[in-house]
Amino acid sequence: MDLDPTVCEAARRSRDPRFDGRFFIAVVTTGIYCRPVCPAPSPRERNVLYFPTAAAAAESGFRPCLRCRPETSPGAPAWLGTSISVSRALRLIGELGLAEESIEDLAAHLGLGARQLRRLFLQHLGASPVAVVQTRRIHFAKTLIDETNLPFTQVAMASGFGSVRRFNASFRKLYQRTPSEIRRLARTVPLRPTGRYAFRLLFRPPFDWRGLLNFLAPRAIPGVEQVDGESYRRVISFGEHAGQIEAKLARARNAIELMVDFPDVRHLMLIVERTRRMFDLQAEPASIASVLQRDAAMAGRLHHRPGLRVPGAWDGFELSVRAILGQQVTVKGATTLAGRIVRAFGRPVEFGGGLTHIFPTPRVLAEADLTSAGLTRSRANTIRQLALAVANGELDFTKATGSEGFLRRLRAVPGVGDWTVQYIAMRALGEPDAFPASDLGLLRASGVKTAKELEELSSRWRPWRAYAAMQLWQGEA
Asked: Looking at the annotation, which residues are catalytic?
């Protein structure tokens, strides 16, 4: 990954938050690496090195700054231009919490060899897959040390370390301090009830939080999700454990405030990672806008709604069912049907405030009579076939990428057409160039009559067509 020293120097001297997480600054005289927005006095340029990722800086022997806290940065942009494979690998690492010995499995999921994947990581991230996984673990552990009162044994467990001994050794190596010493340096954390945690998830501005909520609100599944003018809430579950999350915009900083209520700390890192993806917090608005604004009509929309994100999905299967329900019906109609399915087949919970159920599992929907919830026989059959494929392991959304192989298996489900596949790729798989060209709303907003015409028109928006779709769905500028 090439970094222009002139651009990096200007960004760090101005402390431009748009560059936060796009690169890291290492100071050779102190042995510390920082974010571009670090409030410390700017070092001389001759004493500075630039790295594309925190893992690359750590691999070169630099330790994280305790003042700007690199572990809290928005992270590497979700899509790194020329390396779709690396971007998809980062998504899988976040979803699966890979162990070091699973790197070959990671490469196999992507249709690559382990050596080739390592080469791509070094080229685009400046660090190996193992180094990226290790840095991810220790950064999350540092966040838990600073922002929670969890005992260190639970911090080690939550951040994916195999043992407390390994956890302690990793901290001494990277920070040259013990976890206890780091916690003493952290600000005082308010005591919270057991199982409740607060995180601040940073993003690169601009960020159209209200536009994102406006999109999610009419599509929120009754009983599972709740959206108001300021926040998003939903039920979450892993195995037998259930909980909830609430996200809202932090007023003082470029961050989302996330409250997590969940009893099992082992899932905390995955909960935070999924929330980042749900709200597209790793997007790089400046790069996206630089392409889309070449189209005069799209430039007007960008001016009206800068920083509009592509909302992701908490669960790929849940989103896919919701997409199938939305085939050839209104958004309101699909939401009503989703609520009926949840009430009939979901697992009841008691969280209050309208959160009443866990979304049904694939196995439950594979065996359910969905016509009793008001679905047509053909729509019910499509959902049953999808659920059966997921329950049997033929489709695995936890390991899914936007690869043609996965999308081909998805298209093989009876009743799943190109619109559904593109919508799922866009939201559940995070594909930035996915584009449901046959969508009636997109056709109306773009002023063309056929999907073929819109497909041709959309070529000027590549590789960010999903963001163009969001702008079109938001109405006239």
From this structure: 34, 439
